[in-house]
Specification:
- It is a single chain.
- The chain is mainly α and 159 residues long.
- The chain contains four helices and no strands.
- It is globular, with a radius of gyration of 17 Å.
Length: 159
């Protein structure tokens, strides 16, 4: 886990990239009904805007309240694994909430059927929570932490 603001920023850049790209692939796959090169291309082309949105939401809206909440509910005796899992869940839930809205707005910007916003947003939340939490806890989290600490050993990114 990051130990200072600079490490946290670099870690956030890496984690957002992995999560946004995977969740984009997942959502486009659900819409298309099959995984094709077109699904991969669509996810890649849409990545910059979705990534920027997620990065800004994570850094300026979600991160501080999520971590504050996580540390409120964690006992002082909580071990590092429990801390990581709790913080991850507290981060993923609001990110799914906001990014599902982003996805609904993106879809509706093409169809102009804005009266469907809350229905699409709600169904997006349900579909995305099912994928985002397990992916974050079992794949993205461990992978990004490993890559982050391999590239940046403790103490190499100074506060």
């Amino acid at each position: 886990m990051p130990r200072n603001k600079r490490e946290s920023f670099v870690y956030t850049i890496m984690m957002c990239f992995v999560m946004v790209f995977w969740m984009s692939l997942y959502n486009i796959y659900l819409h298309a009904g099959t995984f094709t090169l077109e699904v991969l291309e669509t996810a890649w082309v849409g990545l910059p805007l979705g990534y920027l949105c997620a990065l800004l939401l994570d850094w300026f809206v979600v991160s501080t309240p999520a971590k504050n909440f996580a540390f409120k509910i964690l006992p002082d005796s909580a071990g590092p694994v429990r801390k990581v899992l709790t913080i991850s869940c507290c981060m993923v839930l609001p990110m799914v909430f906001f990014m599902s809205l982003y996805g609904a707005v993106e879809v509706l910007s093409h169809t102009q059927n804005w009266d469907q916003l809350f229905i699409i947003w709600g169904t997006n939340i349900l579909k995305n929570i099912v994928m985002a939490i397990p992916f974050q806890l079992f794949i993205a989290g461990p992978l990004v932490r490993k890559v982050f600490r391999t590239i940046f050993p403790v103490g190499t990114i100074l506060a």
